Amino acid sequence: MTWKITNQSLDNHQLLVDESLFSLANGYLGVRGNFEEGYSDKMASIRGAYINAFHDETEITYGEKLHAFPETQQKILNIIDSQTVLLYLDGERFSLFSGEILSYERNLHMDKGYGERIIHWKSPNGKEVVLHFRRLVSFVTKELFAIDLEVKPVTPVEKIEIVSIVEGDVSNFVDKSDPRVASDHAKRLFVSEVYEHEHYHILKATTYSSKFDVACVTTTNVDQNYSYKSTVKKTSTEEVYEVSGDSSFRFTKLNIYTDTMRHGDNVVEQGIKIHKEIKKETFEDLLKKQENYLTDYWKKADIVIDGDNKIQQGIRFNLFHLLQAAGKDEFSNIPAKGLSGEGYEGHYFWDTEIYMNPVFLMTNPELARSLLLYRYSILDYARQRAKEMGHAKGALFPWRTISGTECSAFFPAGTAQYHISADIAYGFIQYYLVTGDGEFLKQYMAEVLFETARLWIEVGHMYQGEFRIDNVTGPDEYTCIVNNNYYTNAMAKHNLLWAEKAYHILKETDPVRLTELTESIHLTAEEVRQWKVAGMAMYLPFDQELRINAQDDSFLRKARWDFEKSDEGKGALLVRYHPLTLYRYQVCKQADTVLAHFLLEGEEDLETIRRSYDYYEEITTHDSSLSYCIFSIMASKLGYSEKAYQYFIETARLDLDNTHSNTKDGLHMANMGGTWLAIVFGFAGLRIAEEGITLRPSLPKQWRSLQFSLSYRGRLVRVQLEKDQVTYSLTEGDILSITHCGEKQELHPNQDLVIPN
InterPro entries this protein is in (predicted)? Predict the structure, then answer.
């Protein structure tokens, strides 16, 4: 139950949701959970396959275009469709929407990494068959999408036909009514080659503008005697197997996807080469490799909850899809919807560093490192963007992007969110604190911190002895273009002071590298001095009357939003009100100041944090899925245990239960990371500091126990929370000191440390 997702619904609305829920991916390639045989003509489907970062550039159209508005954006593309497998029993086409379904079961196996459908079907003419579809997107051979179909006739059938189609004439999904989904540029890919070579069926497609190529090289096989024919059409290939219906048989389809960015210009040749490397592997072999990969992943990433099977299932579902979504090369990151759908057009946001990378940082540091190196790879674009925005120096990372340039056309809630540069710097700092990787600091982190710190000197200014940052937007997109957003200022302060610290670490540990770096970016000692001065003088808004941190200079002067009136409508406020209407009120889309208190809680005393939490809770809509987990974490810190659990519940099964009613467009990846944060940073009270890691566990009363693992400085620590005690076990690595509830504790290999509650 808790290791698989099962659904037996054939309701059209749920099928669209299931296409996201049952999607399979490996960080490079993703395939939505569509039916191989298709649907009825009257049913909607978002049929899709995607390669992470494979995109085309599209023109952004403005009514009035001003300086430095982005001219183009990137858009992840729906690529060649290799899912189709049709079945005919004596001429009757199998469909779940005709005949009679005697039994139907659909499963996603999260411990084994594959999806399946098991169907007992009776045709309109009374022919019965049991079909077992299985599919996987390989974590071991990243280019591979495999389908296996076992056919078991139940009643006499003379002839069974299997028709395998690979189609290159595909389009992206659009929805003009929802700004979170693309509304234009559906067709950005054309078939440039289609042919058969030896036993390979080959399609190559090319993007209109970026001129990237993608190829799908397919082989098929039936394990019984058959007659066979194949056809090459203008945009597709078709293979037809005719098999006797007197016994069971299996059909296997292996699809290898390659693209220009990873495989060079010879994408077809590379696809054939990969096929030859795996040609001796059966589908069962592929399943075994998949399971072995996931066994290693779950050893470090699994969270075990005793007391609520639905929550247990939810957290494993979230962790499984996070692994599937995470880019594992220098070209890619984590799209906001993973590789499960087209919402937000496959763009990468600040979500990665703040909500998702911490999961990998504490369970799979190498993967966390890879995600950060993607940001380093686009540093030159961030430098260029800073110059476009009128800054002489620094790096302004794009609000949303794939290849590195800004894709957000709505600057008040896009480019103005300068905090993304500090968020990325924060991610680099967290990685360094957890791993102690000095080489990473020398080669990558220092340069990112130096360039982002430069940005704040460019943007901010000293006023009455305080460093202030005007005209920016914080995480709360219902309040835009403000002076001294608390979150932005606090994160900028952290960025500035750590940049100065990294400079001196490098000066002490590798002065040669420091000289090399400072010369290459023309950094002066005076700039470093300015970082410290600005950081120490950073203005953090505080309201003397309410004794809370003001979200910005003007926020508390506005009228409070009338929630009773707005509750009469349905859906997020952003789709029901003009932005200017929202900007004029005290109403928050998501955690903003409260988020800063989580990430940088040392900036304020506990009572200021408490009063601020209480205040902002009353005016936050949580229209963003990023919000609940932060309110849960801070409720745990403040001792609001019931609130902490209720906010957590909102995150745990958001997609499984489709609580935001838009899971059809793809999964909410940041919320999935937030679920983990709410458990580990919330209930377990984990914090990461220069001095080490600290925990302050508090088991929810709804659970009997909670168990998870943490990777830290080459060690693996298992933590088990029970009603009356907490047990720490050092399962890998040398002696480690941690802090538990304010007291230092020492962990030794193979010795459980049991601490009574």
Answer: Glyco_hydro_65_C, Glyco_hydro_65_M, Glyco_hydro_65_N, Malt_Pase/Glycosyl_Hdrlase
Q: How many CB atoms lie within 10 A of CB 245?
A: 19
Q: How confident is the model at residue 41 (pLDDT cuts 50, 70, 90)?
A: confident
Closest by Cα among 613, 661, 624 to 477: 624
477 assigned to active site? yes
Where do the domains of the chain lie?
4-269, 301-340+628-757
- Return the CATH fold of 4-269: Beta-galactosidase; Chain A, domain 5 (2.70.98)
DSSP character at residue 243: E
Q: Please tell me the distance from the alpha carbon of residue 201 to that of residue 126, in angstroms, as a whole number.
A: 35
Q: Measure the CA–CA gap between 171 and 155, rounded to whole angstroms.
A: 40
- In 517-652, beta strands by DSSP E: 559-560, 585-586
Q: What is the DSSP letter of 696?
A: -
| E-assigned strand segments in 550-637 | 559-560, 585-586
- Residue of 128, 167, 477, 500 marked catalytic: 477
CB atoms within 10 A of CB 445: 26
> Which superfamily, per CATH, for 301-340+628-757?
Maltose phosphorylase, domain 3 (2.60.420.10)
Give residue-wise pLDDT tens across range 650-683.
999 999 999 989 999 999 999 999 999 999 999 9
8 A C-beta contact, residue 662 and residue 180: yes
Instruction: Judge whether residue 236 has pLDDT over 60.
Output: yes
d(CA 592, CA 474): 7
CB-CB contact of 551 with 541 (8 Å): yes
4-269 shares its CATH topology with 301-340+628-757: no
According to DSSP, the residues that pair with 385 across neighbouring strands are: none
Q: How would you write 413-441 as a 3-class SS string?
A: HCCCCCHHHHHHHHHHHHHHHHHCCHHHH
